[in-house]
Design a protein that fits this description.
heterodimer; A: about 1100 residues; mainly beta; 4-stranded antiparallel beta sheet; 20 helices; globular; B: about 450 residues; 2 domains; two-stranded antiparallel ribbon; two-stranded antiparallel sheet; about 5% strand
Chain lengths: ~1100, ~450
Amino acid sequence: MIFFLGLSGCIKNSTETLFKTKPSTLTGISFVNKLDPTPDLNILNYLYYYNGAGVAAGDFNNDGRVDLYFTSNQGSDKLYINTGDFKFEDVTEKAQIKNGDGWSTGVTHVDINNDGLLDIYVCKVGDHLQLNGQNRLYINQGVTEDGVPLYKEEAAKYNLAFIGYSTQAAFFDYDLDGDLDMYLLNHSVNPNRSYGKGAKRNMIDRLSGDVLYRNDQGTFTDVSQEAGIFQGSIGYGLGLAVSDINNDGYPDIYVGNDFFENDYLYLNQKDGTFKEVISSDGNRLGHTSHFSMGNDLADINNDGLSDILSLDMLPEDLETYKTSGLEYPYPIYQQYIKNGYSHQFMQNALHLNLDGENFSEIGNLSGIDATEWSWGALFADFDNDGFKDLFISNGIKGVTNDMDFINYISNEEIQRNIESGLSDKDMELIDRLPQKKVPNYFFKNEGALTFSNVTKQWSTEKPSYSNGCAYADLDNDGDLDLVVNNVNEEAFVLENTTEDGNWIKIGFKGPDQNKFGIGAKVIVYRKGKKLTQENIATRGYLSAKDNSLNFGVGKDTIIDSIQVIWPGGAYQTLHNVATNRTLEAWEKNASGNYFAKNRKPPSHFSTPAEKLDFIHNEYPALDFDRNPLLPFSNSNEGPSVAVGDINNDGLDDLFICGAKKQASKLYVQDDNGVFTDHQAELFEEDAVNEDTDQAFFDADNDGDIDLMVVSGGNEFTQGKPLRPRFYINNNGIYVKEDKFKTIEVNASKVTAVDFDDDGDMDICITSNIVPTQFGIKSKQYLLENDGSGNFTEITKTFAPDFETVGNVKDVVWQDLDGNGYPDLVVAGHWTALTIFMNDGKNLTKQANNGLDKTDGWWNCLELADLDHDGDLDILAGNWGLNTKFNASYDRPITLYINDFDDNGSVETVVTYFHGDKETVFASKDELAKQMPFLNKKFLYYKDFAKASLEDLFGSEKLQKAKKRKVYLLATSYFQNDGKGNFSHKELPLLVQSSTINDIHMEKIDKERINEILMVGNNFEISTQLGRLDALHGILLQNDGKGKLIWTQSLDVSGAARKIEKIMINGKEHYIIARNNDSPVFITKNDTAE
Amino acid sequence: MKRKYSVVLASIFMMVSCQKKQEPITITPEDYHGSVDEVTQVMIHDIFSPPVASRIYVYPNVAAYEILAQQEGIYNSLAGQLRDLKPIPSPGDTANINFPLAALIAHIDLSKRLIFSEERIEKYRDSLYNLWQEKNEKEFNASKDYALQVSEHIAAWMDKDNYKQTRTMPKFSVNSEEPSRWQPTPPAYMSGIEPHWNKIRPFVIDSAAQFKPVPPPPFSMEKESDFYNEVMEVYEISNKITAEGDASEEVQIAQFWDCNPYVSVTRGHLMFATKKITPGAHWIGIAKIASRKSNADFAKTVYAYTKTSIAIADAFISCWDEKYRSNLIRPETLINEHIDDSWEPILQTPPFPEYTSGHSVVSGAASIALTSIFGDNFAFDDDTEVPYGLPVRSFTSFRQAADEAAISRMYGGIHYRTAVEVGIKQGRNLGEHVVTNLNMTKND
């Protein structure tokens, strides 16, 4: 496998992997976290029985080699001293560590008494069944002559002898007073029968609530409540990580909670308190992992900002996925959210840190969202190429979400036995639980936000039940080895054999109260790249790393510079540092304040205060009640917004659409830039309509702008709420005229355009759906103006191909061939980007222009000369690449519409490709509810999972079905070669993190470079797809040659539908209209220019 | 070569010599009980909601009954009596037809169409087929041919009952803004089951709404309102009997009549289901007990099952009509929301609206049907739930059993008193209507 050896170019034997397993016969590490369920203690009465144990890597005897401490659930913890060359000695007894009385969980280290020797803190489960542990603090008493550290348990002395359900602890200086404080992560043990209220997080549970301890001159004080830490009984804390997320110099905390409860992102407020972001502003992170387990905070894209990874249990394997319990269906999921929870989905969640405040969840886009039942995550540069790779430990002895087990295998005996107490004989039941013994995952960071699965190339793919894990350079050769604590199997010691990249290792010599430099941040600058790490021991899952930082720098032999920033901000910069050696950073050599000097770069935009008293109020989406097989809803279209000067006073006024049962509003701007509601009663008349678009245009050529409004939103199937409305402008006062009595259309957009070039404005109304009929092509409309504002439909004669083109979401009219007639470009769902050439008499569909086979879920498009070569290129917003859907011409998404069960009504079956296999999207439960014959064919989930589409539905039904396709999901840039041929060009990957709903193009800068603003997101999609909430608005800059460069986020969260430019008080603004939310205004900052 | 030849010869000889004397096939009531029980077991395995289970019981029974009614005797055909049921094909040459056998085969065949795990029924069927074939091939074949004809006829009728169509109809819309409106309940938070069951073609009642009950007390969580008092009554009774322990009579009653086909159990990461028979199945079980106790012959046994299952099926249609009319919220949701967020009902709340109580309506209707067959004050020991770990309970009449089934829902913490009291009345009225309008025996 030369795959990972590209840098050096040397060829290794193909059977060799980057990591080599060191056998216990060599290492002497025979530690096994052995689990023997007993009637007294097992998965049925302790829910985390199979969660495993941890490992702490640290130099406990100060001999320069990293030692290992393993925790054990049912046996004794073990301390191994590294004697060099991957040989270890079990010194547990000699070191006087006696921790064999049950259920150790997490382990970390700290020099709590500031004597320069590492002490060990072990978390335990106490006060549950016969478990009565209390957390241990082993104080290092010094090292014997033969290198054995002697330990004495003194937790009580420090007030850290917590008794409860502890998971893991982390030491760090949250208040920057110089000493190290402690966060203790605990977990609830109550079976979570009901999801209850999220508000329970505000109550205090002494056994399962987390605790923040402040170090007060060596004794620890519980300051959880005053610091704003949640301590409720609904916290099932399994993941804990610390990092300065917003680069303000103060450490922040991420807590992963299993089950219903949110994860917590605690941002340090610098005054001894924390603000929990997820529960207070759910838009910042969007959705998180649902059944959160381990996590890690690290900078994956070398931009100096810590990103967040939280693990979950989404299977990569399709059959496993289809036999597993899935998210609630959409309607039930909404109820759960209403009970006070934030959005969570079963997937590894990777929150890319955009600016310290906004995050884009790109787990799927980056390729790491599904790694089976996952415990520990470690970001580290294993191949020393300058990018942090990823190790994930996984596997579980007792899989408990297997749907066949739940429905057909488990039986009432189990229940009765739990109630009446288990006997030895009944333990056989536990053996019947399905097991998931799988290889751990390795991902290589490809450098552009994506990871490739290199499990095969880097490891022997040995299946295991792996939990706690830590990396450390065990043989001091400059690369990071791995240690993994396994259930019922010897711990793995994996030697890293990389020889390719150069490296630098940083050790720390800190001040008296923090001798190991906990919380220090190191930035390695190499040729414009910025590699950042922080020295926080607690990392991975239940585990800790040693107190040094290892950086890979690829082929560089000299590092431009290295900055070491200490807690409090003092820093030191080293220039031209030679590689492949270890440096020790001394705090006493640091000075100044890094954070005073390095503030966040100013944003291009600011967000003025609210200017409209309007909040779009979307009616709850009923699409999934009507048809649970849908991938997404069609009833969340608005609001659109239009800007125009309705009273010819030179000031921009605006119209914004209301949702169903909410009137649209017209706002008039005054000289002070204040907007006032205008003629509210006029629009109140049609409040029931879900208005989807509007157009200001002069219909009667009298010099003022009239108004046309269209409705849709999949709310009504017929009648007045689907009729376009026309308002004639009489000196700034609108009067409704009933011009379209015969037209009912579920409209997506209305455009005014003089398509026959006769001097008056004609109308184009597009439609995205036939109401409630998913995937059926809807009719499009062209209406010709007779010059005085009377309209006649001419679609059939003027543009028959356009009438039936598909499900149109957006159109642009522009003269592409210079013949004086505007041509038409169309974007829609299940529809290709299509160009219709206009010769004044007909719209003719253009063929062979490079746009066939672009069928997508297009939402919007714009035409512009992006590459400045004199022709018009296309930029079109699509579904994006951040869900499990991928599509290509060979592996499309297909919608099959047929009456599969012969009951007189059609079913809509959506399929997609998982690898090479076309598979049905909807879950077995949903499908069988619609089509019970499927249960007759495949009652068991495992059989359903294996069945082909033909097996499920029959090839004849599939052949005869109406089919719609999607070949392309990426938001795309099509470059025009000047002859009308379009070719696809790459956009920055982050553009694909969500659906793009509107694009605005501007020449903003003085350099006259095009800037492009994009907004999007879509929340009402199937819970199997999660929630498209990663976008916070995007600013792309054009390098003038058509290369679009991601510049920043717009700091606009939510489900944005439309962006329009508007002058307010003489200053350029943009209004961004958001579904089920208020519109946001942003304006360009002068300072950023 | 020679050797092989002789083996063939030997086997031919064996076959000839094994040809047994043909004897008449005797079908007993126990054979029919056996088939009904088998279907019940498959239903438990496959998991069917209570309304759907009632449909699975009724059509096979009607098929069997119609075959028996072809014979001279006291039973009248239901053709023209059950909505849209046309007379089944006449048997033609009846010389070799064993009517009880044909009835049993039709029961098995139709049941197989209705459940999911066909291979289980096939296995059961084939073991019987082998037996009968061996006994009397001619009689078996003639009876089977006729049974399958009838099964086809009944299946065609069944296919037009709107069941398929209701599969594609909209699901129940959860809307928690409306405080009285039903919401999915812990721990599985399943969607509302069968919101369109009132569109299933009824059997005897003229429409789903014929026995529309009075509305429940107006929703109000104001203290001292009637509705609030009913919520509190559920909460207080539940607490009281929980404190008394599992041995208390009320807890025993609640558990005895649980009849929940799918109880979801979640223990942290561990989930599983406990599965029992449905309310309808319990009353089918009582029909068996009564048939046996009264030494009913084959025809009367089938008659009892058929009449009871018709009453039950119509009862579900009537009850579900009201459930998705009033869409009333369950006690568990309100008690957790307003009174005690850690309260759990003794029984798991089933996934559909509260009013009226399905078990009450069904028990009311089934008890009337059974009383019309076996008489009032028919005492019996009910061991239906023994396989599910519950004790035997004794009753002095079907009426008494129905009363207990109804009140059990309040003890179980899943229904308010009104749903129980109005429900059993609704069921009894419906049952009376069914027995009055059905002319099944010459004595009717």
